[in-house]
Amino acid sequence: SCDETSAAVVDDGRIMLSNPIASQIKLHEIYGGVVPEIASRMHVEAVDAMVDQALEQANCSIDSIDAIAVTQGPGLVGALLTGVAAAKALAMGRELPLIAVNHIEGHVSANYVAHPDLEPPFVCLVASGGHSHIVSVNHYGSYELLGGTTDDAAGEAFDKVARVLNIPYPGGPLLDRLADEGDDHAYKFPRPHTEGKYDFSFSGLKTAVINQAHHLRQQGVEINAKDWAASFRRSVVDLLVDKTLSAALDTGAKRVAVAGGVAANSLLRAELARRGEKAGLQVFIPPKRLCTDNAVMIGSAGFYRLMAGELAALDLNALPSLNMFG
Questions:
Q1: pTM for the full predicted model
Q2: Before 121, cis peptide (omega within 30)?
Q3: In this model, does residue 326 exceed pLDDT 80?
Q4: Cα gap 134→143, rounded to integer Å
Q5: Which pLDDT score is estimated for 19?
Q6: Quick one: CA dihedral 106, 108, 113, 114, positive or negative?
Q7: DSSP per-residue string spanning 128-190
Q8: How many whole angstroms separate alpha carbon 318 and alpha carbon 326?
Q9: Rounded to whole angstroms, how far apart are CA atoms 192 and 189?
Q10: 132 DSSP β-pair partners
Q11: Structural contact between residues 165 and 227, judged by C-beta atoms closer than 8 angstroms
């Protein structure tokens, strides 16, 4: 869907037999962000090799495969088209069922692989570079949007503030590491208000942080990058955790999960676990490798779509703005 090419073999929606991932970070690093055209070309070059590696690592042949699942959207259209074309070719050539999966549903489903005992219902925070949602997972394939960002996503805010601190791409993970060395109470940043109780707003926070940095520099005041990163990270994490736990407790949920690239953030993982368990909730956090984009999460989601008989036709097309909530 973006800049990672991945294939996986998944057994019964829960068991990861393989999950090779080809990253493009080095290619996009010099541009300070993902270049869609480059990403698409690299997917074309890598996709066959990833399928071969997935089968080899799982110690199985294509004859052992029962169905093909693929990300239909949301994401970059060129990247999505590459995956959809490859999946349709495999499905048609081997006469296998084809399953279309929403990328966000895939992130939620990563928790099924990480935690085989987790079953719906539960509340899941999905936080990534392009998405910030609080989702009620009512059943496999059945979701209700409880809250979401009204502007920037959390990961997008991390990346933009990282640039102010001259942190290279990918800014979010590097800012997280820098923040580990700082004082998260050194700087005071605003907590944006939203009309929706479980909604987020990161645009105002991001702008306030960036403007404050410019203002201090114009005055000749040196910014402590470690403290600045830590204080900003604390602001974002507090918002994410506060809203997620409020949604869970208000809806009577007993279990809370987190998913998406921002779920790899060390403070978010620690605070959600600490505060969630203190509130009497079971907290499920996937390993960092399953937080970023990967194919095993798509295979997991695809399994439950397959069990429900929800198959795609061979005229399946990529939908870069695909909505999971109808």
A1: 0.94
A2: yes
A3: no
A4: 10
A5: 98
A6: positive
A7: -SS-EEEEEEEETTEEEEEEEBSSS-HHHHHHHHHHHTTPPSSHHHHHHHHHTTS-TTSS---
A8: 17
A9: 9
A10: 127
A11: no
